[in-house]
Amino acid sequence: MTRGRFPEGLGPAVARVRSADGTPVGSGFLVAPGTVATCAHVVAQALCSDERDTSAPTRPVTVEFPLQRGGVAYEASVSAWRPVAPDGTGDIALLRLPESATTPVPLAGACDVWDHRFRILAFPATAEHGAWIGGRLLGAVGQGWISMEADGTAHHISPGCSGAPVWDEELGAVVGMTVATDRGRTAATSYLIPAAALLDLQPGLRRCPYRGLDAFREEDAALFFGREKETARLLDAVDRHLVVPVAGPSGSGKTSRVRAGVLPHLRAQGHTVSEIRPLPGTPAALTLARALAPLLEPDQGVADQERGALKLAALLDAGGGRAAAGLGQRLLNHCGPRGHVFFLNQLEEIVVAEPATARALLALVVALASVPAEDKRLRVLATLRSACLDDLVEPATAAVLSDCAQVVAPLGRTGLLRAVEGPASRVPGLTLDPGLAERIVDDAEDEPGHLPMVEFALTELWSHEQGIRLTHAGYEALGGVAGALSAHAEKRVGEIIAEYGEKPVRSLFTQLARPHETDGFTRKPVRLSPLPPEVRSAAEALATRTRFVRITHGPDGEPIVDLAHEELVRSWPRLRRWLEDSRDFRMWQERLLQSLTHWQDTGEETGALLRGTMLATSLERAADPAHRDGITRTEHDYIRTSHRHEQRGLRRWRFAAAMLVVLALLAGGLAGEAWRRGSVLEARGQAIASRALAEEASLVAEVSPVSSVRLALAAWRNARGKEARQALLDAFLMGASVVHGYRGQGAEQIHGFDMTPDGSVVVTTSQGPDGAGHAQVWSGVFEGRARPWPVRGIPPGIPRGAELSDDGRLLAIASEDGSMGVWDVRRRTRLWLRSSPALGALGRVETSALDFSADGRRLLRLAVNRTRGTGQGRQPTALVQIWDARSGRTVPASQKGVPPGPEAAGAALVRDGREVVYLRRDFDDPSAVQEPVAELRRVADGAVRERFPEAEWIAGRGTDVIADGGYGRHVVQAVKEPADSSKRRLLAVESAGPDVTGRYLVELIGSLSVTDLDTGLRYSVPCSPRLGELVFTRAKSAVAVLPGGNGTPLVLLALGSDLLVLETTADRESPLPDVSPYNWSSDDTYVRSADGTYRAQFGETDVGQRLVVARRGREHAADPVLLSEFDGPPAGAGFTRDNRHLVLWNGNLLSARSADRPGAADTAKFSESISKVVPVYGSSVVVLTDNQLVRYDVASKRRRVLADNPCSGDGIACRDIAVRPGHREVAVADARGRVRLWNAETGDKREDTGILLADGGEFRSKSMAFDPHGKTVATSIDKTSIVRWEVESGRRVGRTVRGGATLSALLLAADGTLVTEDEEQLALWRPEDTREPFLRFPFDTTSDDLRLTPQRLGPRHLIVEQADTRMRVPLDPDSWHQTLCRRWDGAYTRAEKRLLERAGGTSEPPCP
C-alpha cells in the first residue's frame, strides 16, 4: 500500500459540537455536502436529551468549524438518527446544515485496515482548540465496529473526541468516525464506526464516484486517479511557461486533467482561475472581455457586467495587444496572491470552425498574460487537439508556443486500472468483484477514446447495482464497455423518439457534430434559441432525461446545447449512421455558415453574398423537405437575400444581352454554320486526346503517381468521356488521401529513404540512367513547399542505404560497392568517405543497418556478406563498424555477438552509442535460425546486457524491440528496461515492420495502415485500395509517419519516383487476429454480423482449422479456437440476424457458436450435404441441402422442414438461395431456373413467381440480389446478362444489363442501380446503362461487404467494408475532380507537356 498524504482540506471539514451554554461536547465532520456526521450521544449531551430515545431530536444543534477562516458556526437540524442501543452500538447522528460549509472529507472503506496507522483531529477537554491524536487500528468487533489503540501522547481519546474523523494513513482517506465508549475523562476504550455505516443511515449521501461522459470537475479531485505524473508535468509546465497548450486526441481526458488535476493545486498555491469556452460566432475580443468583466468588477450584477464586457471588447478591438496588456495590469490587482490562470477549454472547436478568430483570441490572452510582475503572474492553459496547434501558430505567438505544448496520451493499462479502482475506494462499502477491474481494462484498453467509455460503463453499473457491489453479472448485462453506451443510448433516446418523433431528435444530433472532409466528426455546440421549437423541446428532454446532451450557458448567458462527449459518435451505431447519412448536407451547411459569418463581418456587403454553384446548391437544399427543417432561420434569410441580389443582376444582364442579340443576329447568320462545324471538329479532337491521356495515366501510375493523377485530371479537362471518367476514379482511389505530392528526380525510381523524427528533413536515393548514384535532401515536405537539393560526391552505383541523424544535421549513405560516406546537411558538404571492408570469400558486401546514436555523435554500419557457406570454407560473415560521425575516426567495437551474414537482420545504437542492439533473424529462411532473438550488447567488449526472444524488428531507432506475440499480435519491449516492465502489446496483422522513424508499425492488409507503438492506436489511409496495392508491391520499406494532421498522423510514402504525403483517419476497430499466421488469409473466409458488431474469420493452421471471432473494439482480446467438429475447412459461415451466433457448415454438419463465447460449438446433422445457409430472422436460419429446405433455430435447436426436393431435379443442385429483405422469405432458384418463394416463419410457398435465373451451370452464390426493401430482384438470365424483376408481379423492370464477360449480381438499389462482379472487378450500372457500366472499381468483394447510400439523402456513395478495411467512395465524378484539384493542382512538367502535345490535348491547367 502507498502511504496517503494527509489532506490540507481535512481541518476545515472538522466540526465542534457545543451545548446551549457553549460548552464543547464532541466533534463531527462533513461526510457529504451540507451534512455533518457525529455521535448520537454527542447530540443528546448538547441538547440535554436521552441518547437512547428512538425519536430524533427536533431542536437545532450548534455546530461550528473552528479551523475555517472566521470560525463559522451554524444551527443544524438532525436529518438521520440511530440512537444508542442497549449494547452500546448504534450511536450515529447526521446533521443537516443550512448551507454547504466546505468540501467534505474523502472517504474509503474499512474492510481490511488491521495495523494501519491512523490520526484523528478532535476537541477533547484537554485541548478545546483541537488536538491531533495518533495510533493504530486493530480488529473488528460486534456490529462491524473496529477497535482503536492510541499512542501514549499528550492527549487521549476522551469523550470530546467522539464524532471525530479517523484518517487512515495507509489508504489516504477517512475510514470512519470515532466513538469514545467510556464517558470518563480519559476513555479506556475507543472504536471506529465505518464510514459505510454512516452513509447507510442516509443512502442518498452515497454518490457515484464515476463521471460517465462528463469531464471531471475541480470538486471531483478526490476521485481523480491514474494521472498523477501527468498532473505534476502540467504543473511544472505552468510554472515555466506563459501559455501551456494541452494537446491530445478525443477521449484522452484533457479537460479532466486540467480541471481535477491541475486547477485544485493552482488554487491551493494562491491562484484564482477563470474557465473560458470559446464559441464559434463570438469575436475574440468579446470572448476575452466576458471573462475579464466579472474579475475586474466583481460587485456588479450580471447585466452591468455584460455592458462592461461590451465596452472592454470595444477597447480590445481598438487597442489590440496594448489594450490587453493594460487590462492585464488591472487584473493583477484583482487576482489571487500568486496570480490568475485562464483556462481555455475545448479550444479546438473554434480552431476548426474559425481559425482566424482562434489565433486572434490567443494573441490577446498572450498579450494580457505577458505583463511583467514581481510576485504575481498571469498564465494561460488551453486544451485542444494536437492537429489544431498548427492552425494556431502565427508569427506573433510562435515564440510563446515553442516547446511549451504538453501532449496528453490516452491512459495506459496501469493508469486505467487506477482510474477504475481508485474512485471505488473513496466510497465506503463499495466493492468490486475480484477481477472485474482487470476485465474492464482488458475490454477497454484497445478502444479508441477508452476513458469516457469506461467511465460511462462504470456509471451505468453503479446505477444498476445500487452502488453497493459492482459485479461481473451486472457488467455482462450492460454489454461490457463496448455495449453499455450504445445499449443505454438506444433505450433512453428511444424513449425520447417515441415521445417527440425521430425527426427532431435526429435533426438535433446531426447539428451537434461537424463532419471532417475525409472521415469522422467532431462535436459542435449550438445555441438553443435559434433551433426550431420541436427540436428545442427534444433537446431539453434529452438534456434532462439522458446523459448524452447538455444544456449550459455560454459566456453571454445564452443557453447552448452540446453533445456530452465525442465518444458518442464513435460508439453509438445509430448516431454514426445518422451523421454519415447527413454528411454531405452538413458539409454544405458548414460552408454556408462560413459564408454567412463572413457576410456579417463585412457589414452585409453584397460582394459577400452567395453566387454561382454555391447559391444554386443552397437553393436546392433550402427547398429539399428532407433537410429544410435543419436550416436555421438566419441561414434561410441569407440564402433568400443572395437569391434576390442575383435576380436583380440577371434582369439587368438580360436587357443588355437582348440588345446584343439583335445586333448579333444581323451579322451572325453567315458565321453560325462555320462555327458549328469547327466546334464539332474541336470536340472530336478533345475526345481523342482525352482517351490518349486516360490511357497514359494508367501506364505511368506505378512509375509516377503524381503524373498519373495529373494526366487523369487533364483527360477529364479535355473531354468527359467514359475513359476519362474511369481514369479519374482510379486517380481518386489512389490520390484522394494525398495532402501533398512531389515529383522525384526525373523517372528515377527511389531506392532508399529516411526521415528525421520531426519530419523536417527527408532524404531519397536513386540511380540515374548512366548508373550513377543520386541522392536528394528535402525540407518543407509536410508544409506543402518541398525544397530538394542534390547530394554531391556519391560513389558510383545504387546507394544501398541512407540514414539521417535525429536532428537532421548529418547524412550517411552506403553505396553499392560497400563504401560509406557522411555529409553535413546544413553545409551541404561531404565530411568523409570510407571504402568497403573485406568480408567472406565470395559475394558482395551489403549494408544491413545504418544508425546514428541519439546524440548524433556516433554512426554504426552493419556490413554483411550474405553468401551461404557450402562446406568449402566460405562462411557467412558480418562486421559491425562504428565511427565518430563527424570526423570518421573509427571507434573500437567488439565483433562478439554480431549475427552471421544471412541472419544479420538489423542493428541499432542505443542512446549515446555505447551499447548496440543486434537482431538475429533470417527472413528468407526462418527455419535457419533456431530462435529469432535481439541482444543488447556493450560496444566495447560485446558483453550481453539483455536478450529479447522471438524478436521481429528493432524499433524506435534502437529504443524498442518488437517481438512476435502470436496471431498477428506483437509485444513492444523497451530496451534497457527490466524484462518484465515497459511491455506494450498491440495487434498489427500483415505487418511490414516499423516505418523509417521507428515509432509506427506499418500494415498492408487491403490498404495502408499504421499503428502507434507508444499508444497502440491504429490509423488508416482512407480510400486507398489502389494505393495499398502499389505500396505492397513496390514500396514496403519506403514509409515514414509523422504525428499531426487533424489529430492523426501523416504518412510520407516514396512510391516510384515520387513522394506522397497522405492523411490518415483513426480506426474505430482493429484487424482480427491472424488466424493463419503462416498462410495467406482469404477474404472469402471473413464474415461480419449485420450490424457490424462482430467479425469472424477461419483458416488453416498446422494443427487444423482455426476460427477467430471478435466484438468490435475487442479484437486484441480475441483468441483463435480450433474447429474440431469439421474434417476440413468450412464451406461457408455467417452470423444470425440477432448477431448472437456464428453459423458454419461443411458436408451435412452445421455448427453454431456464441458470438461472445465461440469456444464451444453446438452441432446439428442433416440428412444430405448442405449447399448453403442463410439467416432469416432472430436466431433462425434456412438451410438448403441436396433434398430439403429447412428452417433451423440455432438457439432452441428446433427445425422445421419447409420443402422436400426444393430444387425439382434428380441430383441437380439449386442454383441460388437468397433472403428477401423485410418479408421473412427466402427465394430459391431450382434446377430449371425457376425462382420460388418460401415464408420461413409460416412455411407458405409461392410456386409461380415468374422470375427466372440462368439455365445450366452449377450452384452460384452471386447470381441473385434483392433491393433493400425486397420489392425488386436482379438475376442472371445467361452468363453475360442480368435482368431486374418486380417480385410481386414477376414482370421485368428496367433494361437488361449485358456485359462482355460472366456477370454476377452483387447489389441492387431501390432505384435500380446495380453492382456486379466481372473478372475480379466491381462494376456499377445505372438504370439507363445496358452495354457498358458507368464505373469499374479495381477490386472485388462479396455482396455482404457492399452498401449504396440512398439517393434521397444526397450524393450517392458506395460503402465497402472489406475484411479489415472500410472505404466510402462518392459516385459523382465532379466530386472526385474537386477533391483532387484541391491537392494536385499546379503547372505541368516538361514531360507532361510533351504528352499533352503528343495527344493533341489542351495545355491549360487541369483545374480551372
From TrEMBL:
Q: Does the keyword Signal apply?
A: no
Q: Which InterPro entries match?
A: nSTAND1, Peptidase_S1_PA, WD40/YVTN_repeat-like_dom_sf, WD40_rpt
Task: Decide whether keyword Disulfide bond is in the record.
Answer: no
WD repeat ranges are 804-833
Which Pfam families does the record associate with it?
nSTAND1, Trypsin_2
Judging by the UniProt lineage, the source's domain of life is Bacteria
UniProt xrefs under Gene3D superfamilies:
2.40.10.120, YVTN repeat-like/Quinoprotein amine dehydrogenase
Q: Which UniProt keywords apply?
A: WD repeat
Q: Which residues form the Novel STAND NTPase domain?
A: 209-605
Per its record, how is this protein called by name?
Answer: Trypsin-like peptidase domain-containing protein
Species of origin reads: Streptomyces olindensis
Q: What is the lineage of its organism?
A: Bacteria, Bacillati, Actinomycetota, Actinomycetes, Kitasatosporales
